[in-house]
Amino acid sequence: MYRAILPEGQIVCERYDHTDNGLELYDDNDRFLAFVPYSNLHALLDEEVYEEDENDRSIM
Questions:
Q1: Cα separation, 18 vs 56, whole angstroms
Q2: For residue 13, is it within any domain?
Q3: What is d(CA 48, CA 35) in angstroms, rounded to the nearest whole number?
Q4: What domain range is 45 assigned to?
Q5: Most CB contacts within 10 A, which of 10, 21, 43, 45?
Q6: pLDDT higher than threshold 70 for residue 58
């Protein structure tokens, strides 16, 4: 799982595809969730990394 960090919140997705202008995010049933322009994307984190660091330190 991945976590897209945006200025207004976060989106959790199973997979993503790169396009010329941003990322397309998909759930575990391969349904489209959202398109995120690169200009709005602060970070894309592997969910395992996010959960490991959550107890140790802030990643924001």
A1: 31
A2: yes
A3: 22
A4: 2-54
A5: 45
A6: no
Contact 52, 58 (CB under 8 A): no
> CATH code at 32?
2.30.30
Q: Using an 8 Å Cβ cutoff, are 24 and 14 in contact?
A: no
Q: Is 47 inside any structural domain?
A: yes
The answer to whether position 49 is within a domain reads: yes
Q: Distance between CA atoms of 2 and 26, rounded to whole angstroms?
A: 10
Return the pLDDT at 53.
54
Strands, E, within 1-60: which ranges? Answer: 2-6, 9-13, 15-18, 22-26, 32-37, 43-46
Token pair 């490991």 is found at 52
pLDDT one-digit tens code per residue, 26-52: 999 999 999 999 999 999 998 776 565
Token output for 11: 């989106």
